[in-house]
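Possible race condition, two jobs.
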Amino acid sequence: MATRPPTADIDESRVRVTAPKKVAVGVPAVLHALQIANEQMGVARSIRTLMQVNQKDGFDCPGCAWPEEERRHVAEFCENGAKAVAEEATLRRVGPEFFARHALDELRAHDDWWLGQQGRLTHPMVLEEGATHYRPISWDDALREIAEALRGLDEPDDAIFYTSGRTSNEAAFLYQLLVRGLGTNNLPDCSNMCHESSGSALTETIGIGKGTVSIEDIHRADLLIVAGQNPGTNHPRMLSALEKAKQRGATIVAVNPLPEAGLLRFENPQTPRGVILGGTPLADEFVQIRLGGDQALFQAIGKHLLEVEERSGGVVDRAFVEARTTGFEAYAAAVRDVAWADLVAATGIAEDELRRIGELVLGSESTIVCWAMGLTQHRHSVPMLRDVVNVLLLQGNIGRPGAGVCPVRGHSNVQGDRTVGIYEKPSEAFLAALDREFSFTAPRRHGHDTVEAIRAMRDGRARVFLAMGGNFVSATPDTGVVEEAMARLDLTVQISTKLNRSHVVTGRRAIILPTLGRTDRDRRGGKDQRVSVEDSMGAVHSSRGRLAPPADDLLSEVAIVARLCALLFGPEAGLPGRRDGATDAGSAGERGGETDAGASGESSGESGAEAAASVARNAPRADWAALEGDYALIRGHIQRVIPGFDDYERRIDKGGTLFLPNGPRDAREFATSDGRAQFTANPLEYPAIPEGRLILQTLRSHDQYNTTIYGKDDRYRGIHGGRRVVLVNPDDVRAAGFAEGEVVDLVSEWTAADGTLEERRAEAFRIVPYSTPRGNAAAYYPETNVLVPLDSTAAVSGTPTSKSVVVRLERRPA
């Protein structure tokens, strides 16, 4: 039977620490998942719902983006997937009566875990300026107020439109159309904080900002290097794929500052071996690298390979390098010049061990490198990932079976959202296709990414913030700056399934729009609708929920956006910065009324005068009510705008999968400046550790996914009943004069552009001695996001440097 939501926060002063686990998943994971599911949904609802997760006729897990196998188990979900489903399909409710009971100041005093545990939002709510409580508001009034706020802006760039990775392709496509219809590209999203470095490095070197492998490639790889990633917690279904590779003879190398249970031994609960025979050891080698030393590791591998090539030849795939790549000689010269002593210093790994890893790469017939945020959230992440590509290019390990790059994306449709247009720097080809389809001229000036959006809000250059999902306040760096920036806004709008901190840290006015989740039935236009998502490997498939929504009048994200479009782009609407009705140069009106056949057909509900008025205001033209009532029409637009979605509707029908084209994978074709894959010469970089300081990485516990906190335990790391802990090498604890279990403040240090030393403080963290390299430490986010300076970002990508924060431990006042 489902339990009631908690009424008080967990007392973290009673945190308990045990030895870390050396095995992941197994029966304990199953029992824990079922316990949480039962608490949130009850037994019958849990069984009915979990059996639909990731099935061909079911719904896509709202957790991670790891792809499904073609043949699926009846229980096609992991422990954290079950937790994500339970949180969304919960029977707990947050309605108007909840907000009447709890003042905003009271809600702000609770942490992310307590807020998230209260349940599903059921009714639109508004917070008036100066009010102490949210009050209910009708859907019509809420949407009208949002539209009026957007129409009242001095210019379109005064608004910020954020997107989380849960949003479906259909909702995301319509959302970016709304934003560009207003006249801005301010479309920051969660990719900016996570895998933007991957996209930047891969686009430059191989011409596509995505991975180049399939799930079958994982199974067929000879060597898998898993770097800066903890699949046992963040992508547990990946362990099954690694187990298959292992059973076929693959070698697995784990590269991480922390030993993670999921890469030590995997007990697959769906096999007898996993349940009663002790499971499968996964990592053949564990490389305990210093934070930020991964570039040096891959330079060391490349250096070793080139030294062997010079001695005996046969290492470099000369045919591939000469026919398909550029820049090899410059790369080879740069790697020859780097000293082994510098590579040892950067990695903390002895030269003989570095060479041993190089020998594994040398002997591999097909190599895949997988990574996540451990490689993407450093100042030098983009050159680091360029060096990953360099190593693969040397042996031709791009575009052949069992080989390639595998950036493992986080949230379930974060890659799909980018594919359909959620990007602040869209290509001209995409914008031109959008113009043709909707008979308007989209803005060309680049918009704000996440960090730039925060700066704009902080500096008074933004007035309205609208978030399609996510928990912006908790997910972003420099929490104090973000909270102050949000408070400066005229209006903040959150389209959400559940309560989170972004609902209680608001602008002067705030609106909450509750929405359907993946598990909910979405019935519009007289029939059940389906949406589609893209996984980490470029496979698109459908998702359809089956549960009755938490409230009868709950709207989907698609419906919310479609209604806002109707209010903004209808015949009487004025747009920010265009209130004189002038036609923008290059609009459909100046192209002699040229329209795409599909767009004009779906706009047939407009009269001639209405259509002319719409074009004159440079607004996108569509029948918004029709799009709200039939998502297949949106997929039709996507098909005509974005290459690769041919025959979209049929290919995702009946559980089918649409595999998007991938030039490097499919044909060794590279959409780079010269049509070849790019070797790059990158100076060696790694974080310097000042005397008496530590380099801190922020990370997830096993009981969380992104900013959603399922509980206060991290059983794989031996942490129970609390999250305010810092994991430190025992020698560093002693050298600093602290004791195990002592409670300290974490103080980050950052030198600003003007030379000023800035400090940020996270209070009351318990020291836990842990196996991590000397000079390195780890602690959970979002609690430590306050320590990440807003201006400390990766070169090129702008990603916050959450894996390399300089901190000191400071005793608390007695």
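Job #2 (started ~2 s after job #1):
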Amino acid sequence: MTTDSSMSIDGDQIAKTDPDLAGAELTGGLNGWSTTASKETGVEEMVLLDGPLGLVSKAMDERDTSLIMPSGTALAATWDPELVSEVGQLIGQQARERDVSVVLGPNLNLPRSPLSGRTFEMFSEDPFLTGVLGASWIKGVQSQGVGSCAKHVVANDTETERRRMNSQVEPATLRETYLRPFETAVRSTNPWMLLMAYNRVNGKHCAQHSELIGILKNDWNYDGVVVSDWFGVDDTVGAANAGLDLEMPGPARYLGVHFADAVTAGEVPEARLHDAVERLTRLADRTGRRSGRPLPAPALLRTSEEQRDTLIRAAAASFVLLENRDNVLPLDPVRIKTVAVVGLNAVKPCFQGGTFATVRPEGEMVTPLDAIREAFGPEVEVLFEPGATPSSAQALTDIGSTAPDGTPGVLLEVLSQPSDEAVDEVLYSEVRQASSFVWFGPVPGIGADAPGRVRVTAHLQIDAPARWALGAGGTGVVSLAVDGRRILEVPPPAPDDVMGVVARAETQQITLDLPAGEVEVVVEMDFQPGRVQAITAVAALQQPSDPLTAAVAIAACADAVIVVVGDEQGSSRESADRKTAALDPACDRLVDAVVAVNTETIVVVNASRAVLMPWADKVKALLMVWFPGQEFGRALTSVLTGNIAPSGRLPVSFPTRDEDIPGWGHTLDERLTLDYAASEPMGYRYFQEAVRAPRYPFGYGMTYTKFTLVEAQAALQGVQRSAPADGVEGVSIEVTVRNSGASAGRELVQVYGKPAGEAGFRLMGFAAVQVAAGATAKASIAVDPLSFRRWNAAVSDWRVPSGEWELRASRNAADEGILCRISL
């Protein structure tokens, strides 16, 4: 990769003018994905790529592919730190192979509500579980010599007005809950970078929040780089003095040479610049991006086959069995002659939400339907019907579009703006396999900070006359034409919501009747200079008949029915929150209709959030599979047929109805402030105090055998309680687990605790144990030292409540389990 010469010149000029300011250029990014190099410090460019579900293309190019990993919530459902670390190693290996220095992940924010548009990236509603598993992911990535950038510090769990909103959080809640995962990660594995969130916290923007950054650097002794979210800085002096080390993306608008100028003007201490440069130099040392320093040796490089095996194991381990009436699972292919598979997600599964971090899958993709057919073999007839139509429009390439020359895809052209002669001057042209395009900075053929036009041309083959919905959108003035006739014009987005429109890939749509034959669709956009440009074209066939009828027909004649429902990509998305935790109404109608004609119905839910399941009491089996990565199909059949027993546990509480969600109905006020007090305590701690119980509690999950906790005993060995900030070390719980079923299995024992005087229990430890059929085994759970602390706002410090503590060994948050008492 070449270095932007203008940046190097700036660095030279700074060094010549004042050697004490050398390296200031490091604090500003070079472009959308790289940091700036510095001759004086020997630091080379470092590539930062978005994650954490896989590596994103620098240029948002669908031809740049990588493996899609299980989502954060799926990984949390494994409750398996070692397995999560393996997934981290896998993405770290992919980063090394692509010359990437830092992966932007994991997301250590908490899904305070299932309505948050970005819950799929997050791990768990519990700060301890999130911290432990997030740290394991970081450990895996960094073992490969690649940095992890944990994000987003902090309280960044709502997408509505995320760049301007203010999270109002009490000090104790902020420290004990929302900062806790980041603290755990810093203490245990030390991510090489931390990313500050867009939002404000208690009135101050996170990237310019000296108290927050002070907690990281001073209280936790964090020695890594503190970076802004992309375009998340709006003040040089405020960000520099608060402790921000790096502004992204580049070219820098506030840091970089502006940082040096502020030091020269006496507005920022010189020591602050030295701190930032030292941290960026340390990152270069750690990632092998400093002159004369070799790349760190990777811990483990997996073959393609080993990578696939890891993804299968991780996906299967994340599946949570919520119902299994009459032990309908695992399915026995010998006893089944006909299987009906229904649901759109069986052929078009959802692997990720709609974000800038959309991953283009690498290699073979086996759908659940194909995997089921393969697993059951030719002796079993597998029938399929979608049962519903997509609720959102599709990319033109997904419905078989071709470029004008007949090549599959669309023709993408970049043109100059119209001249007086109105002659099109094509500056860039190629056939692409997508119909949504994003450019941060330079636009092909034009460059950055220049006006221009983009045109997408596609030919659609219409089999029979039908009604279609066509849509278009982008960052400029967009027009949509069909067979040369302009039918829609879309105005540009409001300046303060451009990034949101890009993240949401927003379109305006129009419905029209299209004749049989070939139809030409042209979407064109005139754009003005901007930090990002985007254009999107979509289409959807309006079905003349209800596909539910056909699905019910095959379900009625099958020995077993597997219904695969869930989200579509984009139904959970960055920069937009949900209105309800429910699935699309068509999913609920499909399940109800199928159950009415066949009681042997198994429902698989492909959504990476807590969802409403009004039909849960009617189905024989219910399997929550989240966004499980691109080996979804093979992992699913392994569990359905019993080759792998489900062992996942819920990392979030599932409400029965929307009204049971903590903080339901509470939104931003007129000052764009969200008062967290209305939803605290959230998650399972809310349900401990609420009148209504959750439909499925945090930590819940079944398997193909039966476990019982027999006894539990607390042990205090070498208990240390010297520094309140470090909690209490040396407390453990030993639990005897009995397997009374007919097969071996993995049981997860959870420990919840509270001091005298507190109302609710909090997760303080967990451990898994393998138990043979008919046998008992002992699980030893180390109680987390930091979970004994409570933040005392009156003195702005940690305290450990003395006296009696109750520690409860349980199978989930709602299980009374076995109570132990200790005194501190």
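Residues 1-9 have pLDDT under 50 and may be disordered.
Logs attached separately.
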